[in-house]
């Protein structure tokens, strides 16, 4: 204490003679391992700490007969700490060689992840490149509480798909939406098969009885939104609003099948959503219908949602509502992404609400009728929308209760403020990550109302709110 006081007094006195500056003794930089998880309370081992991925470049080759996948992943990342080693999420495949900035790295298994020791410590803020040469027979990822995701192989085709995790089944990744990155895929398959994925198509080339398909998505993408579907597809290539529109249905599907007809309305539905939510956030459009009895819904894979054939075999109104739901996610969930899975309602509540808006537009029940029915039957005591627990992620909490909270907000602040809020939200947080607190703050700013208690009641309260 006394020493500090003396120094302070000395510092305050004016007119001191300059003190010679001693050369600073070089401080050794301490490099430490990145954490094995990105810090999501629901899935502690999901994702990884210590770095932020900027881009994935995958060059892969798939053999449908043997089920083997082989190739390289080039990952460009930035260290977020002085980094000695880090994890990559990769399950069920064998790593043959890893280099970091061109130097061979030591690797080891760490549970379902790969631990990589950097040959030379990487300083915080430095970009680095990891090349992983790997292969094997990819598997499903069994997430006990949510259901399988990952790599699915069947007689009718193969696809990589799944939420909240699927990337780690087919490429090494920081597999959590808090670390979004650009993505490019080259997939080589036997000639006659199609490999379709996210974003803009590159030129496909054929050689030695094989075709290489190229796809890229420049806008940052959460890893669970990356997909590939390999099989016999009828691909329709066109453009919409000056951007590529690429849709694919199983080659055996008639263009008049309900699923194909609903898919053909993708551009019209996206434009309808754009009027309500603001500009369409990505540089490509599309959708893929997959014929697999084991797949019973869709997923909002970026720029090109995947739909189970069974999800699109209802009436035209039902089928297009599914498409409206997955397209709405391009704004909510894909461009404006979660930071933690407990805020899943920021993705599913909005997509479900978009579905209700579309049903009303198509002459189905009005939003008011849908909300009334949900409100009456909802188990308010037991199922919150926000923070429903990992086993409640796919329950009606984030979905229907989240959508009801949005409708209650619209009723409270009025149509003008509500849709202004949605457009402001998608613009402000485009290509970013958000939390529930961010949304409440935005709603309060735009409406000029205090809404903390309102959201508490609608999202988390254990009784039926007044409506
Ligand atoms: Zn959804």
TrEMBL record:
Any one Pfam family match given in the protein's UniProt record, by short name: Peptidase_M1
Ranges of residues in domain Aminopeptidase N-like N-terminal: 55-225
UniProt-listed Enzyme Commission number(s): 3.4.11.2
Keywords: Hydrolase, Metal-binding, Metalloprotease, Protease, Zinc
A single GO BP: proteolysis
Substrates-to-products reaction catalysed: Release of an N-terminal amino acid, Xaa-|-Yaa- from a peptide, amide or arylamide. Xaa is preferably Ala, but may be most amino acids including Pro (slow action). When a terminal hydrophobic residue is followed by a prolyl residue, the two may be released as an intact Xaa-Pro dipeptide
Phylogenetic classification of the source organism: Bacteria, Bacillati, Actinomycetota, Actinomycetes, Micromonosporales
Keyword Transmembrane in record: no
Name by which UniProt lists this protein: Aminopeptidase N
Cofactor(s) this protein cannot do without: Zn(2+)
UniProt record similarity statement: Belongs to the peptidase M1 family.
Domain of life: Bacteria
CDD domains cross-referenced by the UniProt entry: M1_APN_like (cd09603)
UniProt-listed InterPro entries: Aminopeptidase_N-like_N (IPR045357), Aminopeptidase_N-like_N_sf (IPR042097), Peptidase_M1 (IPR001930), Peptidase_M1_aminopeptidases (IPR050344), Peptidase_M1_dom (IPR014782), Peptidase_M4/M1_CTD_sf (IPR027268)
Keyword Transcription regulation listed: no
Molecular function terms from GO: alanyl aminopeptidase activity; metallopeptidase activity; zinc ion binding
Residues covered by the Peptidase M1 membrane alanine aminopeptidase domain: 267-458
Record organism: Winogradskya consettensis
């Amino acid at each position: 204490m006394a020493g500090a006081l003396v120094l302070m007094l000395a510092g305050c006195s004016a007119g001191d003679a300059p003190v010679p500056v001693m050369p600073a003794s070089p401080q050794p930089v301490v490099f430490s391992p990145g954490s094995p998880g990105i810090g999501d309370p629901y899935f502690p081992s999901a994702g990884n700490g210590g770095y932020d991925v900027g881009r994935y470049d995958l060059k892969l080759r798939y053999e449908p007969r043997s089920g083997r996948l082989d190739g390289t992943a080039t990952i460009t990342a930035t260290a977020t700490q002085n980094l000695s080693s880090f994890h990559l999420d990769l399950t069920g495949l064998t790593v043959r060689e890893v280099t970091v900035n061109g130097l061979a790295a030591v690797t080891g298994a760490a549970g379902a992840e790969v631990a990589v020791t950097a040959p030379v410590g990487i300083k915080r803020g430095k970009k680095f490149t990891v090349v992983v040469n790997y292969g094997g027979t990819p598997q499903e990822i069994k997430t006990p509480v949510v259901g399988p995701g990952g790599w699915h192989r069947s007689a009718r085709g193969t696809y990589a798909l799944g939420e909240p995790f699927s990337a780690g089944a087919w490429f090494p990744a920081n597999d959590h939406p808090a670390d979004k990155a650009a993505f490019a895929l080259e997939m080589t398959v036997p000639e006659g098969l199609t490999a379709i994925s996210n974003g803009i198509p590159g030129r496909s080339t054929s050689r030695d009885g094989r075709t290489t398909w190229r796809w890229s998505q420049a806008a940052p993408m959460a890893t669970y939104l990356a997909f590939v579907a390999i099989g016999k597809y009828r691909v329709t290539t066109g453009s919409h609003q000056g951007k590529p529109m690429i849709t694919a249905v199983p080659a055996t599907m008639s263009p008049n099948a309900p699923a194909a007809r609903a898919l053909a309305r993708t551009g019209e539905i996206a434009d309808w959503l754009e009027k309500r939510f603001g500009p369409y956030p990505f540089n490509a459009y599309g959708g893929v219908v997959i014929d697999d009895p084991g797949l019973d819904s869709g997923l909002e894979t970026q720029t090109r949602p995947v739909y189970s054939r069974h999800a699109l075999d209802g009436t035209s109104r039902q089928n297009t509502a599914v498409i409206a739901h997955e397209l709405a996610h391009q704004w909510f969930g894909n461009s404006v992404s979660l930071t933690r899975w407990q805020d899943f309602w920021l993705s599913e509540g909005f997509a479900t609400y978009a579905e209700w808006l579309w049903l009303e537009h198509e002459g189905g029940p009005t939003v008011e009728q849908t909300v009334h029915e949900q409100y009456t039957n909802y188990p308010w005591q037991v199922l919150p929308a926000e923070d429903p627990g990992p086993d409640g992620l796919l329950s009606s909490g984030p979905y229907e209760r989240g959508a009801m909270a949005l409708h209650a907000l619209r009723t409270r602040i009025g149509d003008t403020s509500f849709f202004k809020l949605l457009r402001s939200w998608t613009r402000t947080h485009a290509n970013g990550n958000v939390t529930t607190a961010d949304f409440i703050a935005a709603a309060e700013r735009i409406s000029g109302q205090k809404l903390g208690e309102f959201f508490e009641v609608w999202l988390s309260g254990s009784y039926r709110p007044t409506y």
